[in-house]
Amino acid sequence: MSNGNTALAEKYRNNFLQEVIANVEEGEWVRMCMQCGVCAGSCPLGNAWAHTPQEIFMMIRAGKREEVLTSDSMWMCTSCYNCIVRCPRKLPITHIMHGLAHYAERMGLAPKNQPTRKFALEFWKNLTKTGRVNETSLGVKLYFIDGFVSGIKKGLAALPLGLRMFKTKRLDPMAMISSSGCKGKGDIHKILAKAKAIEDAKFQSKNA
Ligand code: SF4
Ligand code: SF4
């Protein structure tokens, strides 16, 4: 557990809902949930998750901090917005789910091997490096995301497809090293660093 997590767990002891309201994007909406279950029934993938949005909101109100923040459910949301358009209380469910995932990451409690979390981190790293996604290097990274041996096996299985793409000029291996990215990528890095500093300062002042 990170120190930040320990301090916040102590600060909001017995009131996880208040912690969510203070720190999670759109978290104040959780108290408006009337547990009707429409979001759970509308989520196309909800059956495959440990907890539907309805359950997550109930668990927040029941103070189940550890169970919520270590859950992989928030990481499974595909942002299809089915739940938002159907919620009778108009909760911004999608944003809350992503906000919870972000907060879990900040607290160091997000499940480390959850595949969409790993993809999100790789995608962000790839994008922010040059300001433009390098699809070739991102694709290769994803092949090796579960380790070297698994990456080699997946790469060999995909070799015929890769060769066909290469022959039809849909795949340029040189793009791995020669991608130039956006102009002024130094400025992009400065903007992102500034945005992070502002967000961290806001977070710290709220939780001082
Ligand atoms: S649809 Fe809205 S009110 Fe109903 S359980 Fe889901 S979040 Fe709560
Ligand atoms: S936006 Fe996310 S939580 Fe809502 S229905 Fe779609 S996948 Fe489910």
Query: Ranges with pLDDT <50 over ≥5 residues?
Result: none
The number of distinct β-strands equals 0
Name the helix and strand elements from N-terminus to C-terminus, one letter apiece.
HHHHHHHHHHHHH
CA-atom Rg in angstroms: 20 Å
Q: So what's the overall shape?
A: globular
Task: Quickly give the CATH architecture of the largest domain.
Answer: Orthogonal Bundle
Helix content: 55-70%
- So, the CATH homologous superfamily of the largest domain? Alpha-helical ferredoxin
Structural class: mainly alpha
Q: What is the CATH class of the largest domain?
A: Mainly Alpha
Mean pLDDT over the full residue set: 92
Main sheet attributes: strand count, strand direction, barrel closure: none
CATH topology of the largest domain: Fumarate Reductase Iron-sulfur Protein, Chain B, domain 2
In words, what does this structure look like?
With 208 residues, the chain is mainly alpha-helical. The chain folds into two domains: 3-111, Orthogonal Bundle (Fumarate Reductase Iron-sulfur Protein, Chain B, domain 2), CATH 1.10.1060; 115-197, no CATH class. Helices cover 60% and strands 0% of the residues. The chain contains 13 helices and no strands. The chain has helices at 3-11, 16-23, 38-42, 53-61, 65-69, 82-86, 93-106, 115-130, 135-143, 148-157, 159-167, 175-178, 185-206. Helix 8 (115-130) runs antiparallel to helix 9 (135-143). The longest helix is centred in the C-terminal third of the chain and has 22 residues, at 185-206. It starts with a helix and ends with a helix. The model has no long low-confidence stretch (mean pLDDT 92).
